[in-house]
Amino acid sequence: MRDSQSAEGRPGRAVTDGPAPAAAPPHAGLVLATVCLCQAMVVLDISVVNVALPSIATDLGFSQGSLSWVVNAYTLVFGGLLLLGGRIADLIGHRRAMLAGLGLFALASVLGGLAQSPGELIAARAGQGLAGAVLAPVSLTVIMVTFPEGPVRNRAVGIWAMVAAGGSALGVLLGGLLTDLLDWRWVLFVNVPIVAVTAPLAWRSIHETRALARRRLDVPGAILGTAGITLLVYAMVQAGDHSWTSTGTVVGLVGAAVLGAAFVAWEQWGTREPLVRLNIFTVRTVWVANAVVVFIGAATVAGFYFASLFLQDVLHYSPIKAGAAFLPFCFGIVVGARFSSTIAARFGNRVTISGGLVLGAVGMLLFSRLHADSTFLSGFLLPSVLASIGIGACMVSNTTMGTSGVAHHEAGLVSGLLNTSRQCGGSIGLAALSTVAVSAADGAGHGGSLQAIVHGYDRAFQVTALLVLAAAVLAALFTPVGRTRAADAVNAVGKSS
Description:
Keywords: Antibiotic resistance, Cell membrane, Membrane, Transmembrane, Transmembrane helix, Transport. The chain is 76% helix and 0% strand. It has 497 residues and is mainly α. It folds into 2 domains: 402 residues, Growth Hormone, Chain: A (Up-down Bundle); 56 residues. It is globular and about 55 Å long.
């Protein structure tokens, strides 16, 4: 098997599947900057609209029940097509895939910024999700094939994970600034200059690759997976608008279960080149990292959503003030990510991940104690700091654990799985917790009053805390204590398939 050449070669030169280089190539810093810009834009767009939601609802006429689709249209398409996006990158090459994703992201952002109706905005957000489904897996895959395994790759993955963890908090801050100083439409237009900077960097730094053999795209698998997740989210939204026993909810849940079973059957027996090689989940580091990130995605996406609404609807913060309130969260993410590798080196991933999640759960639980008379200092600051430091530390260690030692031919699959798990967890979590909040508010018996709304938000934060705590228990029980030969394990599973 030939050695990898593109890490030190010229743009356009093909890469073959082989051992990682002994040291990072000279242009490694430019590569890392490029993929981090891509990842920042992708993650930022999940939360950048949160602070703008009240303005969007007023301007375009969204109902309260349908407003969450501004977020879910992005996360659903993104999460559902991430694995297919990774396969597309394998087929057409990393640089071509990144440039195509950036171009589509810019186009969808312009169309969304010009939207005149709820349907137009939701369609544009879905287009952004499609572009993100190409950009996210290729960004992590590029790191894994560019940087050699060991401390060099771990630092690169750590920076990438920090960007992924902090992008959501930064998105809320940026969304507040743009909405207040300019207009809500700029939370979409802002992606155009980001693409204008990133695309030339990608052309210069990302060396072209190709697969060793031509692969077919598993389109049926992608359709089944995306349709199943979409039906599940739809059912949860229906439960919030009506009830868990309503026809729409029951039909959605049954349909999601049928499509989920069909997806598993198709991937296992229906295709020679599956979108997901299911027996990779027999590798402990892979399934633990993905399970943990599902809970994190659900907690963080829903947490930012409800915190943004609480600040504006209950405390009556302006968009820019609400965005500024998330600055401590941004700082905490950086602090947690910065010290994550040091803590992991001394105590191991199990302590780092589970300990960070316990701290995050405490922060989320304190959010549930917010009330109409809360202030930033008395109610919002401490939960923000605790939750952000814990989640920042967990995200970096969890990503490093889930990707360390993975062979090049498995890089796209494993990175796609981690991104897919986070985004699907976010979509399902937001839909479920929106239902929880609506049901709690309706059951409060105050007729849609501010007190009822606050009760709904508090109940959603309580469930969010339970999700993070469940992830902590999972990590404490199943994360390997010492360093594992993940590459050997993954390769062994691959040979057996």
